[in-house]
Design a protein that fits this description.
With 387 residues, this protein is of the alpha/beta class. The protein has 12 helices and 8 strands. The chain has a 4-stranded parallel β-sheet with strand order 2-1-3-4, sandwiched between helices.
């Protein structure tokens, strides 16, 4: 069985009150990269990731990507074993979806009931699973809701492209009326939730130390080949950091860095590891890492930051290395998710105006595509690309 064939095989979405059959209501597809739920899922997950040309461009990618994935799989399995045997991202996404929909039913009764569907990029449940579950539930009105707060063609763009391909594969192009939430890194509710997590993290330090703690905002890195095309990701991550800093109104210094670079290509920096080393060399003791592009705990927080970087910092004499809590199912973050969708249902746009603007160096003909039925979230009027 090929990777592509495996990727489109249906995976049953979890039954929940959000999945009772009906012809009314709103389906919300929560798009994310995903993570292996068990150790057996690790190698297939890596295989899908390293052969995806929308994320990485490698020579002889089908061959080299498989070789890299196979060689990395044993080490990555060990990392997942150390955090409990798998990624908790599916559990957190389901909790986030349930909390969001509960709030939306009260916030926007005219579009209720609201139901969430999970669409992961490299591990089940896939986009095909989401659209098949929506069809079975009788959903007609659908929202594609990226769970990456900041836009990148390699993350949100790739996930949306796969969602539209799933519609074609399952012959469901004309079943749903879609709108898109394609970025929300500066949304007030999200900014408040991150600021709240930072304040909670600062409570880990003695009162006389708190004002001097350096806030190290860490985002997932991307290959420079993506950034060089004019991808918006670095600017949007920086905008989130700026908004959070303003909301905090604290004297703490801060830096932005990037983590999780893999494979034989150049990645966006400065790397979180190199920044930790430099700060330690400068004599900095107290550093609070803030996951600024991650909305739930997974391998990057639980292993890379909490274990790998924490051990590195300790070995370099950085005694006050800590991490701010992830948003996970914090009530203020669930409020934010509901507000983001609620605002979208009221603002009259099928997608943001920025969505239709392709990167200057874009060479992907599928980029910024839309399904055949895309309509204004509030009025139901058809909206075409560029309107």
């Amino acid at each position: 069985m090929t990777i592509r064939e495996h990727a489109v095989m249906p995976h049953k979405q979890q039954s929940s009150p959000q999945h009772m059959p009906t012809r009314s209501g709103t389906g919300i597809v929560m798009l994310n990269l995903g993570g292996p739920e068990t150790l057996a899922d690790v190698e297939p997950f890596l295989l899908r990731l390293f052969v995806d040309r929308e994320l990485l461009r490698l020579p002889w990618q089908d061959v080299l990507g498989r070789v890299i994935a196979k060689r990395r799989a044993p080490r990555v399995r060990d990392l997942y074993a150390a955090i409990g045997g798998g990624s908790p991202i599916l559990r957190w996404t389901r909790e986030q979806g349930a909390g969001m929909c509960e709030r939306l039913d009260a916030l926007s009764p005219e579009t209720a009931p609201h139901r969430f569907y999970v669409s992961f990029r490299y591990v089940a449940p896939f986009a095909d699973d989401a659209v098949l579950a929506m069809k079975a539930d009788g959903i007609q009105r659908a929202i594609a809701f990226t769970q990456y707060p900041q836009w990148s063609c390699a993350t949100t763009g790739s996930s949306l492209n796969e969602l539209w391909r799933a519609l074609r594969r399952q012959q469901l192009d004309d079943v749903f009326e879609w709108s898109i939430i394609d970025r929300w890194g500066e949304h007030d509710g999200f900014v408040r939730a991150v600021a709240g997590a930072v304040r909670e993290g600062l409570q880990l330090y003695a009162p006389h130390e708190r004002d001097d703690v350096l806030l190290l905002y860490s985002a997932h890195s991307l290959p420079l080949s993506v950034i060089d095309r004019g991808d918006a990701y670095p600017a949007e991550v920086a905008a989130t950091v700026s908004r959070v800093t303003t909301a905090l109104a604290l004297p703490n210094p801060h830096l932005l860095c990037y983590q999780s670079d893999v494979g034989p290509v150049r990645w966006l920096g400065a790397s979180t590891e190199s920044v930790i080393r430099n700060l330690a060399a400068q004599g900095r003791k107290n550093v609070l890492v803030v996951p600024i592009a991650f909305t739930s705990d997974h391998i990057e927080t639980l292993s890379e930051i909490d274990i790998e970087y924490a051990h590195l910092a300790q070995s370099l004499g950085m005694s006050g290395f800590r991490r701010a809590p992830s948003l996970n199912a914090r009530p203020d973050f669930l409020d934010a998710l509901a507000d983001i969708v609620g605002d979208h249902l009221q603002d009259g746009m099928a997608y943001s105006r920025q969505y239709s603007t392709r990167c200057p160096g874009c060479s992907n003909s599928a980029c910024r595509g839309v399904p055949s039925r895309v309509r204004c979230a509030r009025t139901g009027d058809r909206q075409t690309m560029g309107s």
